[in-house]
Design goal:
Number of domains: 2
CATH class of the largest domain: Alpha Beta
Strand content: 5-15%
Distance between the termini: 7 Å
Structural class: alpha/beta
CATH architecture of the largest domain: 3-Layer(aba) Sandwich
Order of helices and strands: HHHEHEHEHEHEHEEHEEHEEHEEHHH
Length: 441
C-alpha cells in the first residue's frame, strides 16, 4: 500500500486549492445535473445561503448547548418545525448527522424501551420489509436486535399480513418506509402501526426520503398514505433535512411522539472525573454549521418554497416516468408516490445499461433483486430531462442490438454479486472490495 506522510513543509493556500479543484474533476457531475443520487440541489440561492450559514458557525460545537445557546435555538426550532410538519406539534427530538444515525437512535430507543416494557423479550427482534433501509440492519448489528424480514406485495409495499405472521414473543419493534428508497413507495403505515399498537410494540416510520416532501405533496392535493404522528401507534420518525429539506450534509432529524419515548435515546454518565457526560445523540462533538445551516434553509424556503420545489420535482418525475416507459424494453417499477423510482427490463442487462450511461456522463445508482437503475429527481434536473431520455434511448437501442456479451467494469461486479448463491460469501466479497477501496493508491 502506498504511504502518504504529513508533508515536511506546508503548501500555500493557492497550491492546495488548485490541487483540490483538480481532484474534484473526477467526481460525479451533480452541478451539471447529470447525477441522480447523493446530492439534493434546489437552486443556487438556497445552496449559497446554506454555505454562508454553515461557515458562520463552522467552529462552534453542539456538544455543549449551554456554551452555544444559538445552536440550541437552531436545533430545537428545527425539530419543532419538523414535528409540526409531521403531524406531531407536541413531538420532541434531535438533529443527527444523517438518516443512518436517526434510524440507529430509534432502534436503540426501542430496545431500551422494550427492556422495561417487554422484559420477556430476551432476544429482541424487529420486523422489517425487505425494502427497509440497511441502516436498520446496521442498528441491529450494533445494538443486538435481530432483523426479521417480511416480503413486499406486487406493488413493492410491505405486506401487513406477513408482519402479523412474523410476530413472536421477542418482537419489540415494527418499521415501515415513507418512502422506501428502492422504489419510492409508501408502506401501509396505518396497518403496520395498528399491528404494533395492538401488540404493545414500538413502531418507527422511516421518512428519511419523504419526510420533507410528502407533507407538501399532500398540501398540493396528492393522495398520500398517512405515515406520520397523525397515525395512532407511530412512536418515532426519521426525516432527513439534507435530502428534500435541501439542507447541508449531514443533517437529519429523529422525532418521538413524546419525551417519555425520547429519553431512551439519550446517554448519561455521571461518574467521570472530567464532569457529567450527557449526550443526546450518537456523537459527542456535533457540527454547529449543520445545525445553523438547516435552520437557515428551513426559514429561507418556508412552506411556500417547499410547495413550489415539491411541485417542480413531481412534474419532472412524471416526464421522466413517461419517457422511460416509452423506451422499448424499459419499465418503471411500481407506482412511485414521489420523486424517487427505479426502472428495469425483462430483456436488457441493466448493469450494462448503467455502464453505457456512465460513459455518457450520467451517474445512476444500481439496484439488485431484480437488477434496476435508480433515480432521485430534484428541481435542479429540469434542463436535463430531455438530454437524459435521449441518451437513455440511445443506450438502450445500442444494448438491444449488441445482444448478450461478457460484462465489464461495475456491471461485471454487480452481476457477479447478484449470482452468488451464498449471501455470506457475497458479503465477504463486498468487504474485501471495500477494504481495497479505502487504501491509498
Amino acid at each position: 500500500m502506498t504511504q502518504v506522510k504529513l508533508p515536511e513543509w506546508g503548501k500555500s493556500k493557492a497550491q492546495i486549492l488548485k490541487m483540490m479543484r483538480e481532484f474534484s474533476g473526477q467526481d460525479a457531475d451533480w452541478r451539471g445535473g447529470k447525477t441522480w443520487s447523493l446530492v439534493y440541489h434546489a437552486n443556487e440561492e438556497t445552496l449559497e445561503l446554506a454555505k454562508e450559514a454553515y461557515l458562520m458557525f463552522f467552529s462552534e460545537n453542539g456538544l455543549n448547548p449551554m456554551a452555544f445557546p444559538s445552536l440550541k435555538k437552531f436545533e430545537t426550532e428545527v425539530i419543532a418545525m419538523t414535528a409540526a410538519m409531521l403531524g406531531g406539534p407536541e413531538a420532541v427530538g434531535n438533529m443527527t448527522t444523517g438518516g443512518t444515525e436517526s434510524i440507529m437512535l430509534a432502534v436503540k430507543a426501542a430496545r431500551d424501551w422494550a427492556r422495561e416494557k417487554k422484559p420477556g423479550a430476551t432476544a429482541p427482534e424487529m420486523i422489517l420489509p425487505l425494502t427497509a433501509h440497511p441502516s436498520f440492519e446496521k442498528a441491529g448489528h450494533y445494538f443486538g436486535v435481530k432483523s426479521v424480514h417480511i416480503p413486499v406485495t406486487p406493488d413493492f409495499r410491505a405486506d401487513p399480513q406477513a408482519a402479523r405472521k412474523a410476530l413472536t414473543n421477542n418482537t419489540i419493534m415494527i418499521a415501515g418506509s415513507a418512502v422506501c428508497y428502492p422504489y419510492g413507495v409508501i408502506d401501509p403505515i396505518p396497518e403496520l402501526a395498528a399491528l404494533a399498537l395492538e401488540n404493545k410494540l414500538w413502531f418507527h416510520t422511516d421518512a428519511c426520503l419523504g419526510g420533507f416532501m410528502l407533507p407538501f405533496l399532500k398540501k398540493l392535493g396528492r393522495k398520500i398514505i398517512p405515515f406520520d404522528f397523525s397515525v395512532p401507534g407511530v412512536c418515532s420518525i426519521s426525516a432527513d433535512i439534507h435530502k428534500y429539506g435541501y439542507g447541508p450534509k449531514g443533517a437529519s432529524t429523529v422525532t418521538y411522539r413524546n419525551s417519555e419515548l425520547r429519553k431512551r435515546q439519550f446517554y448519561v454518565y455521571a461518574d467521570w472525573p472530567g464532569g457529567v457526560y450527557a449526550s443526546p445523540t450518537m456523537t459527542g462533538t456535533r457540527a454547529g454549521g449543520a445545525l445553523a445551516a438547516s435552520w437557515a434553509v428551513l426559514n429561507f424556503l418556508g412552506e411556500d418554497g417547499y410547495l413550489k420545489l415539491a411541485d417542480q420535482a413531481m412534474n419532472l418525475t412524471a416526464k421522466l416516468i413517461d419517457g422511460i416507459n416509452a423506451i422499448p424494453g424499459l419499465k418503471v417499477m411500481g407506482r412511485p408516490d414521489m420523486s424517487v423510482f427505479a426502472f428495469s427490463s425483462d430483456t436488457l442487462n441493466m448493469f450494462e445499461l448503467g455502464e453505457l450511461m456512465e460513459k455518457k456522463g450520467w451517474h445512476l445508482d444500481r439496484q439488485q433483486m431484480p437488477p434496476a437503475l435508480h433515480l432521485i429527481v430534484t428541481p435542479h434536473h429540469a434542463r436535463m430531462v430531455e438530454p437524459f431520455l435521449s441518451d437513455l434511448r440511445s443506450a438502450a437501442a445500442e444494448l438491444s442490438k449488441k445482444g448478450k456479451s461478457d460484462a465489464s467494469g461495475m456491471a461485471a461486479i454487480y452481476g457477479m454479486i447478484g449470482t452468488i448463491p451464498d449471501r455470506k460469501a457475497a458479503a465477504q466479497f463486498v468487504l474485501a472490495f471495500l477494504d481495497d477501496l479505502f487504501k491509498v493508491k
